[in-house]
Specification:
about 450 residues, Butyryl-CoA Dehydrogenase, subunit A, domain 3, Aminopeptidase, 3 domains, five-stranded mixed beta sheet, 8 strands, about 50% helix, about 10% strand
Length: about 450
């Protein structure tokens, strides 16, 4: 109620402020519209009036939404070129620092070095719905970055502000169930990025039964927009495949009998908040929620996809795949092998050791673990617990992951130690079962497996 009242108040002030503005006619061509919008941004930065400032910020968003692709490109380019630091002010502050290198002068240098677009974004944020509008604007910028890397500085400024505005202290954890408002449930269906939710019945099967949970983070400025959500299955033992968890006809597990909580889908919802970390806080807080509600649940694991595995097999120079094995891997493209136990076993003997190599040895050129899902969970302090052959036999699972899924274990006693090992030494903390698969790699491909510390 307070949030709605404040929003209505801002809208009223903004509308009154519009009467104080003398806006130029909106040009028809893309370049003219972008230029006119930049002029409005300059005026917003130079103004001091509260009502006129709110109205001007609202007008910036209204006019921005009318831009086509070329207009948005020109607008972002102007933000990069014309709204950086005030060079004269920065030079003057640096001269003062050279003459008197004290903390007070250092603060002056810091503030003088701030790009003017940061203050522009802050003033835009005051408009009614300003935070959501800036998130949408940044989503457009992410698309434009694929074409123009010169916009990276603008993107860094967005990320810098969003990291503050969306820090954990402002986020609210809410459970999503069948009583959640329909507009939010619709967004859950739309934003699910791991295992498609086909319809309302499918959604209900994931959030309504007593052995299912769904939690999402929300922000006060985006009341009905989930930022990230996680789907949880309560089971008796660690699962090795996704199909039984998603099956329409399945035997439900009484929460009193459940000993394992499985995080089987984590979806980020706002493209404009890419790069702002929520997932680590979400998992840890959900673990605490579940421990309070269900003290008998002792094991917390994921059932995660391996989205880059097939692509890595196709391009990685260090993948230990010989010609005969490579020919057999081509059979993965034909799902007929999934119903042939002998063919499945032949592929398992090849794929499992390669998957262990992928997680434990493969690295990007800058030395990072190749798999993005692995980087996320290992960075959170999880342990690579198990590689699940034939864990996902959907078309997407076969195409991206060769049917493989992975369990990451969140052992609450070891999370911080594991996180430190991964963050500081790049160590992949893995179970003995995963490490033993490297011996299978050595036996099949005739290569030496390195030693890893026991996780």
């Amino acid at each position: 109620m307070n949030s709605a009242f404040f929003s209505d108040l801002l809208s009223t002030i903004s509308e009154r402020g519009r009467t104080l503005l003398r806006l130029k006619t909106w040009p028809q061509d893309a370049a003219g519209r972008a230029g006119s919008l930049i002029d409005l941004c300059r005026a917003l930065l130079s103004g001091r009036g509260e009502a006129s400032g709110l109205a001007m910020a609202a007008e910036v968003f209204a006019r921005y939404r009318t831009l086509d692709d070329a207009g948005r490109a020109a607008f972002f380019a102007a933000l990069a070129d014309e709204f950086g630091p005030d060079h004269d002010r920065l030079i003057a502050a640096m001269e003062k620092w050279r003459a008197d290198p004290c903390d007070a002068v250092a603060a002056s240098v810091h503030y003088a070095s701030e790009p003017r677009r940061l203050e522009l974004f802050r003033r835009l944020n005051r408009a009614p719905g300003g935070t959501a509008a800036l998130v949408e604007m940044r989503a457009d910028l992410v698309d434009e970055l694929r074409i123009n890397r010169g916009l990276t500085l603008v993107d860094r400024d967005f990320t810098h502000l969003f990291a503050s505005w969306f820090n954990r202290g402002f986020l609210v954890l809410r459970r999503i169930d069948w009583s959640t408002p329909a507009n939010i449930l619709e967004r859950i269906i739309r934003y699910e990025a791991v295992h498609e939710i086909r319809d309302w019945n499918d959604l209900r099967r994931r959030i309504d039964p007593p052995d299912r949970r769904c939690y999402a983070f929300f922000h006060p400025a985006l009341v009905d927009e989930p930022l990230i959500f996680v789907e949880v299955a309560l089971v008796e033992a660690i699962p090795g495949a996704i199909a039984p968890l998603l099956a329409g006809e399945r035997v439900q597990v009484s929460p009193e009998r459940a000993r394992t909580a499985v995080f089987y889908s984590i979806s980020n919802c706002q493209r404009g908040l890419a790069g702002v970390t929520f997932g680590n806080f979400l998992i840890k807080q959900v673990v605490e929620e579940l421990r309070r509600e269900l003290p008998r649940v002792e094991t917390f694991v994921t059932l995660s996809p391996v989205p880059g595995f097939r692509a890595w097999l196709a391009r990685a120079e260090d993948a230990p795949v010989e010609a005969d094995a490579l020919a057999q891997l081509a059979a993965l493209d034909d799902s007929a092998w999934t119903s042939d136990p002998e063919a499945a076993e032949r592929l398992r003997r090849i794929v499992e050791p390669l998957a262990a190599h992928y997680f434990l040895k493969a690295r990007t050129p800058d030395g990072r673990v190749v798999d993005p899902v692995a980087r996320f969970h290992l960075g959170n302090g999880a342990r690579l617990e198990r590689i699940d052959w034939m864990g996902d036999l959907s078309g997407k699972g076969l195409k991206e992951s060769a049917g493989v899924m992975v369990n990451y274990l969140y052992d609450l006693d070891d999370i911080e130690k594991n996180h430190e090992a991964f963050a500081n030494q790049g160590e992949v903390v893995a179970s003995g079962a995963v490490k033993r698969l490297l011996k299978g790699e050595r036996a099949i491909f005739g290569i030496a497996a390195p030693s890893f510390s026991q996780g």
